User: What shape does this take?
Amino acid sequence: MSAGTTGPKRDTYRHGDLRNALIEAGLELARQGGPEAVVLRATTRQAGVVPNAAYRHFADRGALLHAVSQAAMARVARTMEAEQAALPPAADEAAAARARFRAVGTGYLRFAQEEPGLFRAAFHVPGDMTHAAADTAAGTGGKTPFELLGAALDDLVEAGLLPADRRPGAEFLAWSAVHGLAVLLIDGPLRGLHPSQAHDAGQHVIDMIERGI
Assistant: This one.
């Protein structure tokens, strides 16, 4: 059902279904228009329920948007996991660790370019930091995107590619560089790049991160 389409109104759901239906509706709205598009009335209309139904599970728009943001972040994590799972067999553990690390960044950038609305929603944080905690943003393997990056960095240390004394805080440097490029590609002056150019830019940034850490 597309946004703006009014389906049959349902004011009851089987236990647990309504909350998930509202989050899925919110995700579809975010896909089309980013976090700004996730409002209670539009979400209930998308889900096919009366407006007041949302208040059974979400105190206000902020609570709903937080749940949608967390669900979008979990999709970021799953895309990163899929990028790692698709890697071909490596010659040795060092090569495997390096490939897993690079796949984290590649998957992150791929999600941003393929799902810009959801990417914006995933990183939406209210000005007052209400609902800012990441508590349900894990992928299939139980790790958030930040934890996937941390695990990949730990693998580099174990493989002898990253000195242990340079490991602390490396997540913040790597994340900042890749996230900055992602924002430039979807909302900044690089948004007009051809997909192949955007891919090359991503690989160059990951090269830079590898050299830097």
User: Anything to note?
Assistant: The longest helix spans residues 61-85.
